[in-house]
């Protein structure tokens, strides 16, 4: 129960701020770049500390890390919800992401260690459904909270949820990896710096220029620290990213598979609400409700994992999911939140189906193709790449959306791209009237068209890679367990 509730809590922290961005940026007088760090700070920390959290769970105890991570997560949520400046919100979100990494990784490892066979499949089915429920209801609940209270409530609700999780977690069984001895600190440092510099490049690219010193320097630094990370992992006695597991082709395919899905999914959850609020004229509550066609299938389909596996097999579910998502994204290029809202809902529903098909089997498949004593490591590697896909997707799409929108607008109107992307059309209207608003919305719609096509290409590439790399015989144990 504690792990399931935590799996609901974490996605809300990703999707909730997306609904609140317009109100938050206005209340704190924040720029587009600083507002993006409300999202990126959490995602970078979540991703960067995932591997270290997996190693720490094996070393110190999975229940202990689960409870500690929950406490850090709740306290950071309290700071973010009461912060008077955008800088403090960004810093609190970074700490919140560290806590989330500990919660997710140790929670997955606890399930893998506690259950086996058919019971493990059912446990991970509930785990996936809980994540799906958080994703499904997060935008809607956050929209209600913003509408009834304010943007502060989006963060403060996690304080309450975290307290409940801490109480329930007292009954969880403790487990460790007897062979674990220490955490790979050099790996943590190099990986964290690589990810932060990569996100910085995408965030600053639109304002500094993609060929500017800051942008190119950020990308070069990211490449350098990523190379250093690989060197460290090859030489350290107990790496947090065990490169020997990459000798298993099926495991490689599975841990990369989420990237093809969450790259688009996270970006849509974060940036569509401001699009609906600005260009679509929806309120915060309505903008959250408009995402339900996308998010509800992600909650519902994992509940039918056993039936889906019998119909399509694990391998096909992993491949078909991103393929369906790619088709849906291409269909979205013909829609907008005003003149073709019905078509938009249909495309969002199809995208949700594609994502939901894969969500129910991803976690179990990742830990089922490695020995049980390596479950913490495998879970850390899998979730690191899943959240890395979210992090890079949110940062990349934010930069791409701003750049594409600015390119469509004239030189004189380029400064208003920040406002229209964040859904703040009131500022645009005050400076130039309805004609300027119309031009801004047209520029934004062009930007979204570019984003949809890029995301579709990423999803399609992932589908092809999974279909060709995954070996059915390596998934027999996972598939048999789920069918039970």
TrEMBL record:
Main location: membrane
Residue span(s) of domain Major facilitator superfamily (MFS) profile: 1-474
PROSITE patterns with a match to the protein in the record: MFS
Subcellular localization(s) per the UniProt record: Cell membrane
Parts of the chain that traverse the membrane: 42-61, 68-88, 94-112, 124-145, 151-171, 183-203, 209-231, 251-272, 284-304, 316-334, 346-372, 449-470
Membrane topology: Multi-pass membrane protein
Coiled-coil residue windows: none
InterPro entries from the UniProt entry: MFS, MFS_dom, MFS_trans_sf
Keywords from the UniProt entry: Antibiotic resistance, Membrane, Transmembrane, Transmembrane helix
Entry protein name: MFS transporter
């Amino acid at each position: 129960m504690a792990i399931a509730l935590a799996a609901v809590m974490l996605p809300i922290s990703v999707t909730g701020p997306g609904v609140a961005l317009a109100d938050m940026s206005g209340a704190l007088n924040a720029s587009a770049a600083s507002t993006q760090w409300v999202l990126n700070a959490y995602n970078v920390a979540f991703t960067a500390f995932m591997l270290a959290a997996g190693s720490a769970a094996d070393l110190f105890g999975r229940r202990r890390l689960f409870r500690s991570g929950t406490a850090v997560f709740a306290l950071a949520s309290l700071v973010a919800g009461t912060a008077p400046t955008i800088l403090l919100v960004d810093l609190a979100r970074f700490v919140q992401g560290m806590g989330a990494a500990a919660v997710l990784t140790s929670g997955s490892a606890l399930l893998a260690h506690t259950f086996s066979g058919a019971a493990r499949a059912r446990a991970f089915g509930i785990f996936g459904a809980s994540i799906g429920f958080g994703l499904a209801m997060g935008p809607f609940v956050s929209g209600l909270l913003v509408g009834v209270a304010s943007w502060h409530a989006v963060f403060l609700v996690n304080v309450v949820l975290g307290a409940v999780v801490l109480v329930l977690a007292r009954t969880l069984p403790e487990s460790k990896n007897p062979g674990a001895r220490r955490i790979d600190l050099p790996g943590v440092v190099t990986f964290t710096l690589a990810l932060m510099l990569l996100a910085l490049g995408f965030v600053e690219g639109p304002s500094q220029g993609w060929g500017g010193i800051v942008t190119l320097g950020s990308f070069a630094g990211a490449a350098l620290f990523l190379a250093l990370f690989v060197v460290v992992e090859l030489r350290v006695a107990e790496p947090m990213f065990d490169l020997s597991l990459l000798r298993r082709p099926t495991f490689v395919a599975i841990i990369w598979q989420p990237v093809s899905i969450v790259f688009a999914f996270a970006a849509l959850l974060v940036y569509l609400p401001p699009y609906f609020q600005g260009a679509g004229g929806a309120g915060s509550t309505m903008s959250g409700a408009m995402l339900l066609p996308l998010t509800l299938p992600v909650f519902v389909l994992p509940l039918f994992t056993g039936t889906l596996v019998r119909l399509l097999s694990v391998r096909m579910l992993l491949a078909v999911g991103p393929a369906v998502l790619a088709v849906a994204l291409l269909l979205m290029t013909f829609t907008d939140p005003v003149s073709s809202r019905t078509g938009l809902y249909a495309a969002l529903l199809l995208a949700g189906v594609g994502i939901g098909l894969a969500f129910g089997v991803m976690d179990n498949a990742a830990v089922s193709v490695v020995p049980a004593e390596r479950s913490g490591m495998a879970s850390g590697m899998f979730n690191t790449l899943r959240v890395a896909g979210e992090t890079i997707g949110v940062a990349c799409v934010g930069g791409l959306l701003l750049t594409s929108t600015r390119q469509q607008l004239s030189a004189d109107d380029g400064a208003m791209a920040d406002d229209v992307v964040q859904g703040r059309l009131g500022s645009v209207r005050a400076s130039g009237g309805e004609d300027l608003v119309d031009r801004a919305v047209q520029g934004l719609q062009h930007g979204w068209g570019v984003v949809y096509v890029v995301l579709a290409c990423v999803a399609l590439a992932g589908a092809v890679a999974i279909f060709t790399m995954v070996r059915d015989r390596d998934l027999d144990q996972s598939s048999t367990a789920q069918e039970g």
